[in-house]
Structure formats: C-alpha cells, structure tokens
Amino acid sequence: MSTPEHETRIYPPPEAIARQAHVSGMDAYRQLCDEAERDYQGYWARLAREFVTWRQPFTQVLDESQAPFFKWFEDGTLNVSYNCLDLNVERGLGDKTAIVFETDDGQVSRHTYRQLLERTCQLANALREAGVKKGDRVVIYMPMSVEGVLAMQACARIGATHSVVFGGFSAQSLRDRIEDAGAVAVITADEQLRGGKQLPLKAIVDEALSLGGCDSVRQVLVYRRTGGNVNFDPARDRWLHDAMAAQPTQCEPEWVGAEHPLFLLYTSGSTGKPKGVQHASGGYLLHAALTTKWTFDLRPDDIFWCTADIGWVTGHTYITYGPLANGATQVVFEGVPTYPDAGRFWRMIQDHKVTIFYTAPTAIRSLIKAAEVNPAADPRNYDLTSLRVLGSVGEPINPAAWEWYHQNVGGGRCPIVDTFWQTETGGHMITPLPGATPLVPGSCSLPFPGIMAAVVDETGKEVPWGQGGILVVKKPWPSMIRTIYGDPERFKKSYYPADFQGKYYLAGDGAVRDAKTGYFTITGRIDDVLNVSGHRMGTMEIESALVSHTELVAEAAVVGRPDDTTGEAVCAFVVLKRPRPEGEEAKRIAKELREWVGKEIGPIAKPKDIRFGDNLPKTRSGKIMRRLLRAIAKGEAITQDTSTLENPAILEQLSQTN
Ligand code: WTA
Fold this sequence. Notes:
By secondary structure, this protein is an alpha/beta fold. Helices cover 32% and strands 21% of the residues. It has 19 helices and 30 strands. The strands form eight sheets. An eight-stranded mixed sheet has the order 12-11-8-6-7-14-15-23, with helices on both faces. Strands 5-4-17-16-18-19-20 form a seven-stranded mixed sheet, sandwiched between helices. It has a four-stranded antiparallel sheet with strand order 21-22-24-25, with no helix packed on it. Helix 4 (80-93) packs parallel to helix 11 (313-325), helix 7 (171-181) packs across helix 8 and helix 10 (282-295) packs across helix 11. The model is unreliable at 1-6 (pLDDT under 50). Bound molecules: 5'-O-[(S)-ethoxy(hydroxy)phosphoryl]adenosine (WTA). 5'-O-[(S)-ethoxy(hydroxy)phosphoryl]adenosine binds next to helix 11, strand 20, strand 24 and strand 25.
C-alpha cells in the first residue's frame, strides 16, 4: 500500500481529553503495557477484579494445560446480566436511562436500568417456563430493538447460550445456524422495519423451520413490532408480550462458571460453512467492559452510540454488554443511516446530544457521497458539538474518509479510535486510546494494553518494522474465542495452525508496522474471506450457493474487488450448463443468480458483478487461478505469469464486462 503525503500527518490527543482520560498519555499507556509484560496473569487478574463482580471469586487466572483451548478465571462464578443490570440498580443508577431507543420512523423512548432489569427478568422467567435451561442454545432473529437486547440479557441471566442471527440472513442460512446450534427456542419479531420497508422475520423463521433439521426448536417467541400479519402455530408460537406479562419482575440469576458459553456467533471462514464462534462468560465480559471504558474513554455522563446491529459482534460487545456493564446511557437505533434522508445520523447525534459515536467506514463513505449532493446530508449543517470521541470499526478506514470524519463530523476536535478486532477476539485488539495515542489516519495504531499482537513471517518469526507480514497474537487473552461450536479440530486448524507450532493466534489478516513508530496498519485478509460493507463473507460460501443452482450453474469462482463505498465488492465468475449467454440473456441470468444467492445466504451476499465464461482460468492440474480472477475483477491488465495456465484465451473473454 502506498503512503500519500497526508497519511503521515499526526494528530496528538486533545488536551481536554488527555487531562482527565482513563488512560491519560503515552506514559500511562506504556505503564499498563509494562505491567502486562512483567506479570501477564497478575495484570488480567487485577482488571478482572475491578471490572467484573464475581459471585465466587476466582483463584486461578489462566489455565494453559489444554492449549489452545485456554481457560480464564475458571473457578470464578458470575452472571453477566447481573453485572450489566442488577449491579447498576444496586449502585443507585436504577433511574438512569440505559437506552434511548429511536425507531425507524423517528419515535423516541427511554428505558432506565430498573426497567431493563425488570423486563429482562420477565423474559428470563418466560424462557425458563418454556423449559429453556442452563446450557441450552437460543437463536435470536430480531430487529434492532430494546427487546433484542433484552432477549440476549435474558439468555445470559438463565445461563442459556444465545446465538444471534442478523436479520439480513435468509431462511436457509437461519436454518443452518439453528440446526448447527441445536437451538431449543427462537426469539423473533413479526416484522423488521428499516428504511420504511418491512421484512417479514416471523415468516422467514417459519420457512427456516419448515426446511427440516430444526426439530430441537420447541418454542418461538414473537415480539410484535409492526402488527403485520403472521401465521401462528399455537403449539409452538407465543407472543413475547403475553409470555412476559404473566411473569414476575424478579428472576434469580443462574450463577455460572467463568468459562460457561455466553454466546455463539456464526461467522465466515475461508472454507466450509459459517462457524459458530463460541465465547465464554467471564473473560468476555471483562474485555467488553474494559475496552468500552478505555477505548472510548467512557464517563458517567456520556451518551454513547454504536450504530452496529446486534446481529454482528460489534452489536454484542458495544451495545448489549460493554455499555451496560459500565452503567452508561446509549442510543439504540432501529433504522438505517439514509432514511428518511442521509442526514439521519447527524440529526440523531444533534437530538440526543451524543458524545461518543462509533460507526463503520462504509457508512462514512456513503454519507460523504450523499453530503456532496444534498445539504441535508452534510454534517456541517448540524450541531454536533456534543461529540467528544469518534470510532471506526469493521474494515480499514481510508485516510480520505478518516480526514472527512475528523473534520466534518468531529469538528477537528474529536479523536478517532480506529478499532481493529474480530468476532473471534470478542473486543478491541489494536486501537488508539483517545487520551493517549497520537493518531495517524489509516492506522489502528498500537495494541490495547495486555494484547500481545505481532507481525510475523510464514515461520512465525517477527518481521522487522516496515515489512509486511501475518498478524498474530502471541498470548491468549481473556475474551478470545474458546472453540468453534461442535468442531474443536476446525478451531485448532483455523486459529492455532501448525505453521506457528500451534503457539500463536492467527487473525487471518495481513499487517505492517510503521518503520519509525511501530504503528500497525491492517493490509486486509490473507485468506478467502471478503469484507463487504463491514460484513464478513467467505468466497466459498457464495460459490457453494451459486453451484447449488444445479439447473443453471456448472462452475463458479468468487473473488473480491476493491469498491469505493463498500470497501470490497463480490465478483462472481460463472460457467453455465448452457452456452455462454450474452446481452439481454446474460443480464437476465445474472439477475436470477443474484436473487438465488440472496435466497441461499441473504441479500448482503449478492454478487455485484457476475461474469460468464466458457470456462475458468485453471492450471494444468485443474486448480482455479484466483489471483488472475482478482486481477480481472479489478479491471487490471494481466501482467502476471500465465505460463501454467491451461486455457489462456479465457482471460480475454472474462475481461469483458456484461
Ligand atoms: C476487518 C468486526 C482494518 C479485518 C469487528 C478483520 C478491520 C475482520 C478493522 C473481522 C479495522 C475489522 N481496520 N480491518 N479497524 N476492524 N477489520 O469478525 O479484516 O465481522 O479480520 O469483526 O474485519 O470482521 P468481524
């Protein structure tokens, strides 16, 4: 990656923030890193006592005896929902607003910690009444809503393991996840409302359950969001409000061991089906609470807003768990940034006096474009002076978008924390801290104190600063993935491969450290995982979806190509079982295949480009040459060596856009 002039600009932490920050200045940052370096377990134990309230205190910190299946604080017991709700009420925050909820059509409601606690208890009791027990899995397929947060908290309260499925996934994807998790219950809504459009969540659940393999599901709880029509199976379905109304507002938490699985979250890898990333309770809660406080420099009077969906890990850690564990007030938003117009985010920051704003580069890039043509979308036309700290997550933020965000949203005053992390890491791994770290646009800067990140070569040897390599984490950390649900071997192979003697956690990203400062820049995935609008997808999954259209498709290969707005776009090369289509026919079939992928996986996976060929570029041994496809997708001239190619003429054909 080249480094244009303005990327090297450095923004020191603003005085006003540095003075009173939780981590104030680089000396404080280094002290924490030194503490972790000197006494790794002691450091995490100290924080685990400070940030988590334990029912039964732990006596062991890290158990490495079954590495890479690490255990943290194993003999400690706790309840995550107790930590997020009861504790705040006990500390006198019962009447504090926990959630300011704004609906798609702009209605605002406020929910105090006491209300959240009482309703969580009611929902937890309803789940218990439905026979859901500690260790059972519950799938949550919900719109962005207070009820979505309650559903997660209620599972945590009774020790059930939740598995939230993003509302943009299809019935087929939902079915796969229900089956893999062996879920006993599903919590959903009649419909989701986003950008003025309804999405029939309950109908999708019905379809998923009818596809087979979901016999484990005994109950479906339905939150009435829109009042739209739904089919009801009285033996299986129950309205959430009915189920809750009958229940007391107290519910004794299930005290669980620190390693008890809090949740599964399915995410894409380079091979096979999405994998159920399993997180533990104690270590996860610690990092969620800790990073929310330090990375955003969270204070009691902040109004925090993370725009992610609870269907992704960002919504888990920085909506459902981190802010509540800190007793914060946060905004939860049902809708989308562009409805009713692209000024929605800025208007909401102004209306709710948001002080900390955390969003994705894709959103920023699309709003930059909107602001160019529509004054109502221009952040400079809103009063955003309440903002103190800005955050970015999910994909690399390009320096131009960073500068725009800093200048036009943050008024040049607000540090931007560019947080690098993953579903598997549970919370921030490499990120600036607003009162400490001088910022360089496009760099996620330095590891969070206690995270031992490094850049290595294929043999696991650290490469010199300035040289690109593979991003690894050298020591286990409390909020790390524990296993892939039902597939411990795949966990080992994916994250602790033999290449590094099984010692280092492999993130799956490439990185380079600045030659002078040691700052990290993430250079992108080194496997077949795509990142489209911050949504993670495997090329293999999309290929499988395409070839499952057995009537039309003979063969398919999927690659990513850079996209100005979405970061990456999905580009599919398809060989049909009929002659290569052209013109209108090609357009029609491409449309059909796009819809097909939408149905198989979900609308987020629909290829932007579909190109048809008589064949795919292959080596003489029959291996598809993806690097050539990537070059073609980018529109680059093929300068690479094609001498091993079986059928060079195919490149020309695939280069033609349909
Ligand atoms: C990418 C999202 C650059 C990276 C929290 C990672 C980033 C994948 C950043 C994980 C960032 C996330 N800069 N790249 N600040 N944050 N990524 O599991 O490729 O949905 O491996 O977790 O997103 O995506 P996931």
